[in-house]
Amino acid sequence: MKTAVDTNVLIDVFRDDPVHGRASADALRGCMKQGSLIVCDVVWAELSSLFDPPSALRERMELLGIRFEAIEKETAEQAGALWRQYRRAGGTRERVMADFLVGSHAACQAQRLLTRDRGFYRQSFAGLEILDPSTSAGS
Length: 139
Prior knowledge:
CATH topology: Rossmann fold
């Protein structure tokens, strides 16, 4: 099983967040036991802002066993179409294209998404399995 990981879960772990850090780390370990962990370009870029030099991020991700998997053209096209539908339906600018890219990456190139932002993803990506480390069941 391939699990896409959202930025917020990794920030919890990297910053040893006192509220979510342990649960996010446990969820990562659980997902790793069931298959591979991946992040897309957007997540990698967001995380890069936390590390200087960039090689420090690469080292941490390698230690965690998380692979970079680029967003495919069809995935990007799906994200664009979903963004267009969202805006036409009255969606606010609170959600940015990056959120749709992360969700589409998980939906098209993985089997599930590990994130604490489950409300948006559950609504916008109905068929995608969402795992939320902040809930006791992780779903």
